[in-house]
């Protein structure tokens, strides 16, 4: 019975999680599970000493966040200095969390989630002008597309978490982060940009999806060169999946360089 109860409490029993309390300003603190491996899909409760940030409870049956009574949705344009610093402190984990695909392949000191998003943002900045595509929006989407990983970590296909469940977990995490930010127009914009990418619902999202894959195979080529490794998996998993002409051309250039370096070794 005990083992059955434990399995029910954690649907991913092989996952190693540790609880970490993240301290913010005098207003409140948040206790999240800290994920060194794929996370449990449940976020812990958030308890605040600020009456405007009343207790938030999230579990597997909740989509979005629920605030305490008498806490109307904020409509202010910008977060307070305190909320901004709290949010940025939480986002620090994007800088410190390494991308798991590289760890799984034994790459020492691999890129962080923030490293990955930063170079994607540069891709959006330097890409050719494309009719109908808003470059500034592409940059914004690139900046926020993996932002929920500050809480859930980098969940990869090898973790065995279904795509729908991964999306639900990340939505809950994003709701939590926007609550930390204090709601308002900036939080709403982050939600909108993230959803646009998640659902691949615009030309900008199509392009940034391609940048995500281009950045990954470019990083794979760099690690192959630096570490003398063969990382075929990353090239095979993206083959034929680029949606835009820019993505296809950039990917072709990376593959051409890889083949030249390896004596035209087929992928």
UniProtKB/TrEMBL annotation:
**What's a GO cellular component annotated to this UniProt protein?**
cytoplasm
On the tree of life, the source organism's domain of life is: Eukaryota
Xref: InterPro entries: HD/PDEase_dom, HD_domain, YfbR/HDDC2
Required cofactor names: Mn(2+); Co(2+)
Leading EC class: hydrolase
> Under which EC number(s) is this enzyme classified?
3.1.3.89
Q: Where does the record place the HD domain? A: 113-217
Q: Name one GO molecular function term.
A: 5'-deoxynucleotidase activity
Q: What reaction does this catalyse?
A: a 2'-deoxyribonucleoside 5'-phosphate + H2O = a 2'-deoxyribonucleoside + phosphate
Which family does the entry's similarity section mention? Belongs to the HDDC2 family.
Q: How does it assemble?
A: Homodimer.
* Biological function: Catalyzes the dephosphorylation of the nucleoside 5'-monophosphates deoxyadenosine monophosphate (dAMP), deoxycytidine monophosphate (dCMP), deoxyguanosine monophosphate (dGMP) and deoxythymidine monophosphate (dTMP).
Specify the protein name.
5'-deoxynucleotidase
Species of origin: Perilla frutescens var. hirtella (Perilla citriodora)
